[in-house]
Fold DUF4256 domain-containing protein.
Amino acid sequence: MATNSKLNAEETAHLLQKLKSRFEEHTSRHQKIKWEKVEKKLSANPKKLWSLKQMEDTGGEPDVVSLNEQSSEYVFMDCSKESPEGRRSLCYDREALNSRKANKPKHNVVDLASEMGIELLTEEDYHHLQQFGEFDTKTSSWLKTPQGIRDLGGAIFGDFRFGRVFIYHNGAQSYYAARGFRGMLKV
């Protein structure tokens, strides 16, 4: 995470207003959750607000998709219709990036997610997100890859085609203009 991971008062107010508007526009994603409680928790966590701004600034359109009753954490996920535009054309991780001899992408998803202070979605998370709409109908999103697959040089990604979610594999060093990654943040 960046060393200056705090928003000023104006940035905070602007981001909270944007998140509130999205929250109110998409009530089906969080039917039993009250914005006032979410806002109170966000206001008490400036580093989490900074991460949400990173998600927003890269096109993720983060929104609340659940409340973990046991930990009392609100779960935000990138809810942009397509994979966030500011996080595309990236290979999977640093090892994959270093293995490329030519035409290296600018970054990799594992390190960028860490720098943003967010987690990559797992297969389970990705299926959960798809309950709220059809996401990645023209793009795809890298997913947190099980170590066994990664040890063999692969990585997984998902998309939504033909009325269902598909999970695929690719070499971790590959990257495409239409493949990014979606993140999750627990507050």
